[in-house]
Amino acid sequence: MKSVFTKDAKDFGRVAVLMGGTAAEREISLNSGNAVYQALLHNKVDAHAIDVKTNGLEALNGMSFDRVFNIIHGRGGEDGVLQALLQTLALPYTGSGVLASALSMDKLRTKLCWQGAGLPTPKWVLLQNECDIDRCIVELGFPVIVKPAQEGSSLGMSRAETKQELLDAWQAATQYQCDVYAEAWVKGKEYTVGVLNGEGLPVIRLETPNVFYDFDAKYRANTTQYHCPAGLSDEVEAELIRLSLDACAVLGVTGWGRVDVFIDEQGQAQLIEVNTVPGMTDHSLVPMAAKAAGLSFEQLVWRILETSFK
């Protein structure tokens, strides 16, 4: 993969590494941010770690920077709010812009965009009241997975196999104060595709003994397996990467990100979601895929920082 902008660390100027935030993924963001910060220091970049404990404006108040490496996961960092602030401050930043960040953070609107573009994504039903529960059962059957539309790291997600479980899952997800929807359960294998500067990284297949790839499987369990190579033919892997790039293009996602996708029992790919600020510890999925492509963690961080040159 080509490095297209910078040849010297000085080209980046003074870099703020924004991490933390106030969302449920705060601790994960701090872990990612510290890993990114150390990698930038290793690359001789003039980097400064900033823990955003309230909002970006307060965190940056009185300080002067040339650009921002945004590694705040979830709402407030990944949903267009911080991106809009940084644009107002005329501060270049990594990753996608305001619109793409806002759309991608909202999994329901993401699916609507994909549907409009003719891209494959599992059927779903918006759950707003108990009448929708019955409609969901008729339209989707069981099992389903219930999701809050604007949370990451699988927070608030539950599988339901009965009407009571569906009710319970809906009520649990409403605590996240955003739209909630049920999605048809996909029987098949789960994959993730890292995207960097308009190119796809090697595909990873995820395997967990948990009911699904939940928060525990992502961050706590030692039973989750990551397969890279993913066990796909060259033709199917190339098609999965092409689909992932198309999925990003529909939303306007630029710079870098990660697309989650299933291949169902009929061999049909099903797009699930896009993360525009994925995890960046040395155990996260994008660094894992980058390593398979021949990029060290430090090289990956450098390439992501290059995306601030929009």
Summarize this structure briefly:
The protein has 310 residues and is an alpha+beta fold. The chain has helices at 26-42, 56-60, 81-88, 98-105, 107-116, 130-140, 163-173, 215-219, 234-251, 285-292, 297-306, and strands spanning 14-20, 46-52, 67-70, 124-126, 144-148, 158-160, 180-184, 188-196, 199-200, 204-207, 225-227, 256-264, 269-275.
What features would you describe in this structure?
By secondary structure, this protein is of the alpha+beta class. It has 3 domains: about 90 residues, Rossmann fold (3-Layer(aba) Sandwich), CATH 3.40.50.20; about 130 residues, 2-Layer Sandwich (D-amino Acid Aminotransferase, Chain A, domain 1); about 60 residues, Dna Ligase, domain 1, CATH 3.30.1490.20. The protein is about 35% helix and about 20% strand. The strands form 3 sheets. Strands 8, 9, 10, 11, 12 and 13 form a 6-stranded antiparallel sheet that branches. Strands 4-7-5-6 form a 4-stranded antiparallel sheet, with helices on one face. Strands 2-1-3 form a 3-stranded parallel sheet. α1 crosses α11. The longest helix is centred in the last third of the chain and has 18 residues. The chain is globular and about 60 Å long. The two termini are about 20 Å apart.
Which structural traits does this protein have?
alpha+beta, Rossmann fold, D-amino Acid Aminotransferase, Chain A, domain 1, six-stranded antiparallel β-sheet, globular
